[in-house]
Amino acid sequence: MNRRTFLLALPLFFQALAAPRTLRVGVDACPYCFMTILDARHAAQAVNPQGKAFFYDDPACLLDQLNGWGGPSLTAKEVYLADFVLSTRTAPKWVEAEKALLYHNPKIRTPMGSGLLVFSRREALEQHLKERPERAGGRVLTWAQALKEGERRPWVPADVFTPSKAP
Q: Which of 22, 24, 84, 136 has the greatest CB tally within 10 Å of its CB?
């Protein structure tokens, strides 16, 4: 392979390397709320353009940080969310945020009180609601819809964490 072909293929090579990083439950801490991640079923992950991974204890923390509600400024090249049903407390099963379904019901207890659960398939969400009917009555969002909604108000309830919108 000549040098020109190599240089042209380099961006494709780095794109092929895109993959979730390994979460260390009980060790990694959320850069938004500073809580140690204790339940991988609610975890989220953002990878910046330099390849550094940031882990969150609740998808709401990541949504709020991306929308400028607090924490250090973050540009995410990759975003992954833990599938609630397929993950365990100690090991997340990551799904790309753009492919995930977010289920929001404020009655559901989550690490930051957001009431957000993540599913990789609608069938899994429907099965979960059959098994846990007390969680019914929420709404389903895409990642893009959740980000858009987070522009107007933070996802983390103010009684849990009081963020301020960056100027």
A: 84
Please name the helix (run of DSSP H) or strand (run of DSSP E) that holds residue 81, with its range, or none: strand 78-82
Q: Identify the pLDDT of residue 118.
A: 98
Tens digits of per-residue pLDDT, 85-100? 999 999 999 999 999 9
Q: Which residue has the tokens 């108000």?
A: 153
Is the Cβ–Cβ distance between 163 and 70 less than 8 Å?
yes
* 128 DSSP β-pair partners: none
Q: Among all chains, which residue has been given the structure tokens 């973050």?
A: 74
| Token reading at 123 | 């069938």
- Cα–Cα distances in Å, from 32 out to 35, 129, 148? 8, 29, 19
Which residues in 37-63 are b (16+ Cβ under 10 Å) and which e? bebbbbbbbbbeeeeeebbbbbbbbbb
Nearest partner of 113 among 165, 60, 150, 66, judged by Cα: 60
165 pLDDT band (50/70/90 cuts)? Answer: low
User: What's the distance, CA 105 to chain centroid?
Assistant: 16
In contact, 102 and 140? CB cutoff 8 Å = yes
